[in-house]
Design a protein that fits this description.
Distance between the termini: 51 Å
Number of strands: 3
Strand content: 5-15%
Mean pLDDT: 80
Strand order of the largest sheet: 1-2-3
Shape: elongated
Low-confidence stretches: 197-209
Number of domains: 2
Largest sheet: 3 strands, antiparallel
Number of helices: 8
Helix content: 40-55%
Order of helices and strands: HHHHHHEEEHH
Length: 209
């Protein structure tokens, strides 16, 4: 499936913001890790423009953004630092009734040195655990399933699953994907299993026997 540069940027932003492991997020989105890291490498090297599958040929700058508009974009970006280039483009178009593409906003911000590198670099993860579980409740997995509802936006299904039995212990559907959502789902799982009352595990030497 061929994706536009805007779609790739949206997915990169989504993966960077989630609290979940990259491998889990990509699996839920149905994106092969090799494909995602290819996009991410191009993005780190060349920014938004590098996400285009094929750069358009040079053309006359008849549509160059006026200096007054560039100044207004920079002013808006400084006031709303939480917005991405895509969100700024939409906000500016709605508020000022002047259309600006995401790529134009990105170039303006980059020229003004307002585009920074990510605070961290995503690392590839292994496809399987080196030490698989051998009993129930030895380890739980938390996960999010992404559900895009047209007209409503993204919804997230938070689940807690026992790694050994693959049994879903608890789940919660909501419009956010924050640490608190995972915590609430974990609390439900603990209430179901009585995890808060479980005794401490035996010493390592006893467990090995």
């Amino acid at each position: 499936m061929r994706r536009s540069a805007s779609e790739k940027m949206e997915l990169i932003d989504l993966v960077e913001r989630t609290d979940l492991p990259v491998r889990v997020t990509l699996r839920q989105l149905g994106i092969p890790p090799s494909t995602f890291y290819g996009w991410y490498k191009r993005y780190l090297g060349g920014g938004f423009d590098a996400l285009h599958d094929k750069l358009p040929p040079p053309r006359p700058r008849w549509n160059k953004v006026p200096e007054k508009v560039r100044a207004e974009v920079i002013d808006l970006a400084l006031k709303k630092t939480e917005l991405s280039a895509r969100e700024l483009a939409c906000h500016f178009t709605d508020e000022r009734r002047y259309f600006l593409s995401e790529s134009s906003v990105y170039r303006i911000l980059k020229a003004a040195d307002l585009i920074t590198s990510p605070a961290y670099v995503l690392l590839s993860a292994s496809d399987r655990f080196q030490h698989p579980t051998k009993r129930v409740n030895e380890m739980w997995q938390t996960d999010f399933t992404y559900l895009r509802v047209i007209g409503w936006g993204w919804y997230y299904l938070s689940t807690v699953m026992d790694d050994f039995s693959r049994f879903i212990l608890a789940y919660k559907l909501g419009p956010t994907m924050a640490t608190t959502d995972v915590t609430e789902t974990l609390d439900e799982a603990l209430a179901l299993t009585g995890g808060a009352e479980r005794p401490s595990p035996p010493p390592a030497e006893t467990a090995e026997r």
